[in-house]
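DM from R.C. (forwarded with permission)

"hey, sorry to bug you on a friday — could you get me a structure for this? deadline for the figure draft is monday and I only need the backbone to look sensible"
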Amino acid sequence: MTEPFPFQFTPSFIGWVSAAYSVLVSGDRLVVANDGGEIRDFVGRANQRFVLTHAERAEEEEFTLDTDSLDAIERYLTVQIGRELRDQAQMPRIRIPFAAQDAAPGFAVGTFRDGRKGLRRESGDTVDVRFADTYSAVQYSYYADADLGDLRRSLETPDGAPLFTPFVER
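My reply, with the result:
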């Protein structure tokens, strides 16, 4: 009898992403790949954390983020994949701010000792996601606390409602 895989995406995420991507198991990691496998995101574990890496075509994998929460990875991938699906559907692009000074209200970008970027709330709490770059951290600040259903709806509607309306290209 085979052991169950040690972690899984939620059924709602798998159902949503399966419209255009595949979710596979490769060794001890989950892989989210577009049809044809040219764009791949890998989710594994290292040092008790979930680690997301990304590769396109024949490129080597690159670190994207790490976190204690698989929910944070679902949230991040929902936006990345949702933006790709919007492009395929020829909907207006969503341009979320990305400069450090443009983090969402209530958030600020910080740098960890290892150079990774993170988010801090006005309350002083740190958001438990470490990013490869400032760009990703700032964009994540705009949906860090969003309901996943609202996040998907915002990516599926031309006007970006309810979350991304201010960022839809006109």
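R.C.: lifesaver. Residues 51 and 98 are 22 Å apart (CA to CA).
me: no worries. Strands lie at 21-26, 29-34, 39-46, 49-56, 62-67, 107-111, 117-121, 126-131.
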